[in-house]
Predict the structure.
Amino acid sequence: MDVLAWLRDSDPALRWQVERDLAGEPAPVWEATRARVAEEGFGARLLAAQDPDGQWASGAFFPAGFRGDEPQPWTATTWSLNALREWGVDASVLTGTAELLAANSRWEYEDLPYWDGEVDVCINAWTLANGVWLGADVEGIAEWFVEHRLPDGGWNCEWVEGSARSSVHSTLNALKGLLAHETATGGTPATRAARSAGEEYLLERGLFRRRSTGEPIGPWVREFGYPFRWRYDVLNATCYFRDAGRRDERLAEAIELVRAARQPDGTWLQQRTDPGRVWFEVDAPAGQPSKWLTLSATRVLDWWDAR
């Protein structure tokens, strides 16, 4: 199987990343493909679903009318912005969206203003990343992460219920948000120190082991699925360290778990899918080869093996 040709035969949201990160195409080639994301395929379809008030599905984190009697839907504003940002849509395509959300969107938690964030670590991480992408003032959220880091170095969305132990899920999402903020603004000494401490929290555990016993946290750390959304697994975590440019020998065992999941034909399988409403499907069903996971895993291994 020609994996590179298989990956190239895909939506522009995926193809431009294949051209840049795996095929080594010159910038004019992949930049031209990236520009198409807003004009055709996944990106264009999701942009067309935006409401006149700047939101998607008339809600911040949940669509309007959600009552909790169904699985988490993935159609509201935060999830839609996450996808468009990760697919490489240029912020200029969404000119005015930051202002519309400031005027019209409120969190389901206590009706708080959208760009102020709320109390959930993961929600605040995505809002921080989306805010710096769209040019919103989210410096208050960046400082919130400094103030809400737990004594063991990471974060936990359940801190508001009294949890004092960090979660790998929450910590990884916090790190992604802080990295996006630092990449866009340079960060502050405090936010850079918080991100470094969060990385150490994961590295001390080899990304998937309990620090107390050395045993794996759970089988789900090896269950890869795209979209990543809020879930933690070792592929998602190693993707972060690649993006952050931090090579550390404590990643080695997790990297080998990623390598071991490669199929004989050079692909990675979709191992889990999340239930819940979506605008449209963007990857293979469970048990089938996943182009998104194959892209992610291949570039992680290429990065690691080139060290």
The domain at 3-305 is CATH 1.50.10 (Glycosyltransferase).
